[in-house]
Amino acid sequence: MTASENGIKIIKQFEGLVLHAYKDPGSKNGLPITIGYGSTMYKNGKKIQLGDTITKEEAIDLLHWEIENKTSVLRGMNLKLNQNQFDAVTSLIYNIGIGAFMTSTLLKRIRYNPNDPDIRNQFGRWIYNDGKVLDDLVRRRKLEADLYFK
Fold first, then answer.
1. Which member of 32, 77, 87, 104 has the greatest number of CB atoms within 10 A?
2. Could you write out the three-class secondary structure of 70-94?
3. Annotated catalytic residue 66
4. Which candidate in 5, 15, 58, 144 is catalytic?
């Protein structure tokens, strides 16, 4: 299974497109440095550096590469997800990272029962950055949870 346009649309909507490297506006120290649709590294593994620029086409290519890279782990777990569920989890992983997802209660709930109603609450726990609730994360998690249960 691969991410469909429904999941990619959420990622694009909340990450936004910026063609020059910038500091993460939601963190105290400005890290990680991102570019495009919130990418933190290039395909060769090199981290994004302030001063870097890319084209829109490169940003789209990088977005799809990152989605593929991050969801390869998800696909390898052999979870019984439908397309909407896969897309919602893909958007979450794109934002929080695969490491955080792998240790999350959300993943535990999905593994036990992908239709567990508590999964909606688990999406809602990922709304903090540096200990502060961010309105954009609240909106994003609601959209992801709504898509998951659609």
1. 87
2. HHHHHHHCCCCCCHHHHHHHHHHHH
3. no
4. 15
